[in-house]
Prior knowledge:
Elements: E1 9-12, H1 18-34, E2 43-49, E3 52-59, H2 67-75, H3 79-87, E4 103-109, E5 114-120, H4 123-126, E6 131-136, E7 143-144, E8 155-161, H5 164-177, E9 179-182
Antiparallel strand pairs: 1-4, 2-3, 4-8, 5-7, 5-9, 6-8
Amino acid sequence: EGGTFDDDVHHAPTSMSPHDLKAVHEVVTAGALAQGLTNSVMHAEVRFHDGRPYLLEIAARVGGGGLDMIARITAEHDPIAAVVDIAAGRRPDVRHFRPTGTHIAAMCLISDAGVVREVRVPDEVSTSDRVFLLKITARPGDVVKRPPDGNTIIGFLGATGTSEADAFALMNDYAAKIEVSFR
């Protein structure tokens, strides 16, 4: 919890306590029912303040930015297949959360400000079997802005690990190897 909200980093599976998870489920369920969502895939964003969860966003859609991949890798849940099943009138294959044992860490890639000349990703990063998400969105000529002028990202990177620390260490190591040059 800080003065601002920014979803620059993800980790899964959750490290929340059973008490906090129950509180999140209650808030998300209330938000879904308030919108009439009773048979839907949904994406919710929650922030804790003073130890209580608050709903920031809820929508009848799959989460973007690699969240579907994260669900498959860490919990063997396929939200895209669930959307297809619901649309076809079939009951989706869902169950109570059971972690697979694989951890992930994923982040928005942030660089200095400037006009992009080139983004270089070394083969060590782009071919790693532990990288599940690598998307460079910045192109030559793009203007990258940093706060307070903006908050441009240059892409996304996600890595797997045997623990939260392992996944974060590899993600940070690989992120540091991605080079951005400016005009």
